[in-house]
Design goal:
This protein is an alpha/beta fold. The chain has one domain: Glutaredoxin. The chain has five helices and five strands, in the order αβαβαβαββα. A five-stranded mixed beta sheet has the order 1-3-2-4-5, sandwiched between helices. Strand 4 and strand 5 form a beta hairpin.
Amino acid sequence: MAYDSPEYAEIIAPMREELTSIGFKELHSASEVEQAIANAKGNTLFVVNSICGCAARIARPAVREALEKYPQQIEHLYTVFAGLDIEATEKARDLFTSFAPSSPSIALFQDGEFKTLIERKQIERHTIPEVKETLVQAITEHFVS
């Protein structure tokens, strides 16, 4: 099945909605990613979403739960979908300096400056509460005074 097929779009719609329903803005091009990060004053949470059943099904709920703990700490929520938003995903990964491509992954930026990345290897084979705690620790370290 091609990534741009209607069937694929239908399959991933609920996966996209898990993030967009809690305020994430989808970015679909490299220029959208560049502009979003360049103009993001304050704290940004950036998720590279994916269809991966073993890790993404853990990452999305963990992100939601972490945001419930610190709703005021994150001013900007952005996401790209690996395998579909190809150009946007490549640009986002370029911003995650010194990390290999990973999806899903969760990045933190402050005033457009990359701070840290939670990679797939920190998500897969972990529970939602464990990944939530990893993200909460990163938010606390980088965004909470």
